[in-house]
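Question (not urgent): is this output format expected?
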Amino acid sequence: MKKLAIIGSGDSANAIIAANCGWVANAEDVDWLAEYMLKVMNTSSAELNRLGENGREYCLHNFSKKINLDKLVDCVIND
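Got this back:
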């Protein structure tokens, strides 16, 4: 399972926060990046796997073909 650390903002950062599957920081925050690189290196495999599973579940519930097709159909019909 892949884990995420992102530097930036927007939809990707919002998804990582909502899914609790990684870490998010501002692009200019070099101190945060250094701190979290050490934190990730010292995080247990079990915790990293839990974060990865959180991300997988979030994607399945929010980005699957069926979910997005249902959202698209709803937009077309109701707008």
